[in-house]
Amino acid sequence: MNPFRYERASDASNAIALLAQAPNGAYLGGGTNLIDHMKLGVRHPDLLVDISRLPYDHIEVLADGSVRIGAMVRNSDLAADRTIRARYPLVSQALLAGASGQLRNLATTGGNLLQRTRCVYFQDISKPCNKREPGSGCSARDGYHRDLAILGTSQDCIATHPSDMAVALVALDALVRMQGPRGERTIPLIDLYRLPGDEPQRDTVITHGELITAIDLPPLPYAATHSRYRKVRDRASYAFALVSVAAALDFADGVIRDVRIAFGGIAPMPWRAKKAEAALRGKPASEELFRQAADAELADAQPLPGNAFKIPLTRNTMTRMLLDLVEERNQP
Ligand SMILES: Cc1cc2nc3c(=O)[nH]c(=O)nc-3n(C[C@H](O)[C@H](O)[C@H](O)COP(=O)(O)OP(=O)(O)OC[C@H]3O[C@@H](n4cnc5c(N)ncnc54)[C@H](O)[C@@H]3O)c2cc1C
Ligand code: SF4
């Protein structure tokens, strides 16, 4: 590991000012992703600004009914929170499907959103990787790409975004609040992320020194309480998603009134399935309709030989989950 300086920020302004003076510095949340990358030689920040003790560690219900999650709230605390479990169960399920108990105790909400891809070549500095070293090439296209993306890829990169929590939050239209050298801004979480295009080194639109301070979850009384996160992976725990689906369903008299769907494990960012949602809204629920809606979303998929299995796996996972949600709704 390269030498680096460590500073503990006293407040947000102090954190932002410290990083503004260090173009190669980084914020340190729980460190469960960043420190691993420093040990592997993937990243070499010369300054770590520890933000983990900043007072953004609360979950509060706002006057308009939305819920604000501080960026330093630990993943374990968020998953266990009563309001989150009651009003947004898919967020809790997504968190508990990720990492391990020990990791979740350390990992922060802000850090979770900005964790980087698990593509094996990104983490192996002996191999070319456009995301780690722009212009060096992509080892995955002709190499091991079983875990990688089928939607939203580019010639330069086919990596997947790894966060489970972010998939659930994107399905719920979460907003992300940031503070930086040029002031504050709040944007839809989905707009934080970007597709690789010809700049796969940029996962997000966040600029140097911007600090994520909170996530806002809008009130969604009907759909969000009736929601699920399902993750398909190689092991029952401690494994990243091959495919995951977050869904919230508003269903009455056999008809889908509203639906939110997002996919994980198949794209470079949490993938909101807008085409599938449009194909479902206002229609009578049926297995056939769910399959057609999944196919509408997956029509643009560009799989490689090693990951083509993700197309039927995504279709089946989404269909099964929507059938389960309808069945649950029909129970007295
Ligand atoms: C073995 C293992 C298995 C895992 N399995 C899963 C899994 O199945 N599913 C899953 O979703 N995750 C999984 N994870 C990843 C884990 O969830 C992330 O490592 C964790 O959420 C990152 O949070 P952190 O606070 O530790 O981030 P850090 O490592 O501290 O930071 C990550 C990045 O975010 C930046 N950052 C942190 N906080 C902020 C902020 N507030 N504002 C701006 N920038 C910030 C840092 O500078 C850094 O670039 C796994 C990790 C490991 C090690
Ligand atoms: S898929 Fe992306 S992260 Fe993986 S080797 Fe190719 S460029 Fe690197």
Describe the secondary-structure layout:
Elements: E1 5-8, H1 12-20, E2 26-28, H2 34-40, E3 47-50, E4 59-61, E5 67-70, H3 75-80, H4 82-87, H5 89-96, H6 101-106, H7 109-113, H8 164-171, E6 175-180, E7 183-188, H9 189-192, E8 211-217, H10 221-225, E9 227-232, E10 243-252, E11 255-264, E12 271-272, H11 274-280, H12 287-298, H13 310-330
Parallel strand pairs: 1-3, 2-3
Antiparallel strand pairs: 4-5, 5-8, 6-7, 6-8, 9-10, 10-11, 11-12
Helix pairs in contact: 5-8, 11-12, 12-13
Bound molecules: flavin-adenine dinucleotide (FAD) and iron/sulfur cluster.
InterPro entries: CO_DH_flav_C (IPR005107), CO_DH_flav_C_dom_sf (IPR036683), Diverse_Substr_Oxidored (IPR051312), FAD-bd_PCMH (IPR016166), FAD-bd_PCMH-like_sf (IPR036318), FAD-bd_PCMH_sub1 (IPR016167), FAD-bd_PCMH_sub2 (IPR016169), Mopterin_DH_FAD-bd (IPR002346)
Protein name: FAD-binding molybdopterin dehydrogenase
Domain FAD-binding PCMH-type: 1-222
What is the H/E order?
A: EHEHEEEHHHHHHEEHEHEEEEHHH
Roughly how many Å is the radius of gyration? Answer: 20 Å
Strand order of the largest sheet: 4-5-8-6-7
- In which range does the helix fraction lie? 25-40%
Enumerate the distinct ligands.
flavin-adenine dinucleotide, iron/sulfur cluster
Structural class, by secondary structure, is alpha+beta
Largest sheet report: 5 strands, antiparallel
Let me know the average pLDDT.
96
* Distance between the amino and carboxyl termini: 59 Å
Total count of helical runs of at least 4 residues: 13
Unreliable sequence segments: none
Count of DSSP strands: 12
Shape: globular
Question: What amount of the residues lies in strands?
Answer: 15-25%
InterPro entries: CO_DH_flav_C, CO_DH_flav_C_dom_sf, Diverse_Substr_Oxidored, FAD-bd_PCMH, FAD-bd_PCMH-like_sf, FAD-bd_PCMH_sub1, FAD-bd_PCMH_sub2, Mopterin_DH_FAD-bd
Organism: Ktedonobacter robiniae
Protein name: FAD-binding molybdopterin dehydrogenase
Domain FAD-binding PCMH-type: 1-222
